[in-house]
Amino acid sequence: MNVLVTGGAGYVGSHAARLLTAAGHDVWAYDNLVFGHRAAVAPGRLIEGDLLDKEKLADVLRGKRIDAVMHFAAFAYVGESVTDPAKYYHNNVVGTLSLLDAMLKTDVKRIVFSSTCATYGEPESVPIGETQPQAPVNPYGYTKLVIERALADYARAYGWGYAALRYFNAAGASADGDLGEDHDPETHLIPLVLQVALGRREHITIFGDKLPTPDGSCIRDYVHVDDLASAHISALEKLKPGTELRCNLGTGRGTSVKEVVQACRDVTGHDIPAKVAPPRAGDPPALIADASLARRELGWVPRFTSIKPIVESAWKWHESHPNGFDA
Ligand code: UFG
Asked: Using CA atoms, how far apart are residues 87 and 97, in angstroms rounded to an integer?
């Protein structure tokens, strides 16, 4: 298939683009490079453009004879979405509607969408299955939920096939250490801990150690970025007119912040001092996926099921690229 990957210069998008290419698809990354990195895209495969540029999108969809879209491009800082929701609704929702318009105009009817466990908000119970209520607790989660809703309506009205893949905590880096996580500012736990190991930060702050979890720190379901990428490809290859897939992507295994920090110490051999601070506002104590639907529907079995190999892959990237793609 000819596939357009929006956000293809970003963290998950670049890994998916690379795996799509390896699977024999013809892949174009579409990215405005606000957060994406030119060096994360295969040479000659980047189209610089904004989601809001509907004309350009339509030209690209037509010109490259695109069969399907993988849509990763989005702003994804939860805290910022609370203080500047307009930025999030504009970029994520209006930007996506512009992409969907361009698809309508050019008769592209297949899309795999990067959604999030943040659409569930505070879960009723863990592990979280797809039937739990979706009640986001921040604007970022709402923007993703609105798009899921639009996709369901478009699929029914226009005969599209779509998959909304709700990731838990994306982590790790490609096996060769050439692609990895490079956010500015960085807010995610594993890269921050590894920056301490690299001597770029003095300590890691653990947000809360008296939560209702076995060791008192927050539990998350860390899922390897290449496992996420492979689920996107399986989903893409399943899409037919009218297909509606809404699946969680996680390992089903929770790891606490303290366990992540310890895994980073074990992998890097560095001390990694940690300090405890109050919990971060809006952080649920535990988020763990029930990913059995993805297993059934997509035949998806994550290859990384424990934190240590995930951290090992991330460390390979951070150690060889201490300044990210700018190195
Ligand atoms: N954490 C710390 N110290 C830090 C950074 C994070 O203790 O310096 C903790 C957080 O409290 C959380 C865990 O580490 O418990 C993971 O935090 P991340 O910021 O790495 O990831 P989040 O779970 O907050 O966010 C992820 C995605 C979001 C998505 C969210 C859904 O990055 O896009 O899951 O809950 F919205």
From this structure: 15
CA of 211 relative to ligand 1 center, distance in Å: 15
- For ligand 1, say whether the CB of 207 is within 6 Å of any of its atoms: yes
Contacts for 161 with CB less than 8 Å, ≥ 6 apart: 109, 110, 111, 155, 239, 240, 241, 242, 243, 244
Question: Residue 46: pLDDT above 70?
Answer: yes
Ligand 1 geometric centre to CA of 160 (Å):
33
Catalytic, 140? Answer: yes
pTM: 0.97
**Cα 203 to middle of ligand 1, angstroms:** 17
pLDDT, residue 327, reads: 62
Does residue 280 have its Cβ closer than 6 Å to ligand 1?
yes
Question: Mean pLDDT throughout 275-299?
Answer: 95
Tell me the HSE value of 113 on the side-chain side, using a 13 A CA sphere.
32
Atom of ligand 1 nearest to the CA of 279: 11
Q: Give the relative orientation of helices 54-63 and 95-106 as an angle to the nearest 10 degrees.
A: 40
β-bridge mates for residue 71, sequence order: 6, 113
Query: Three-class SS of residue 304?
Result: coil
Residue located nearest, by CA, to atom 19 of ligand 1? 188
pLDDT at 139: 96
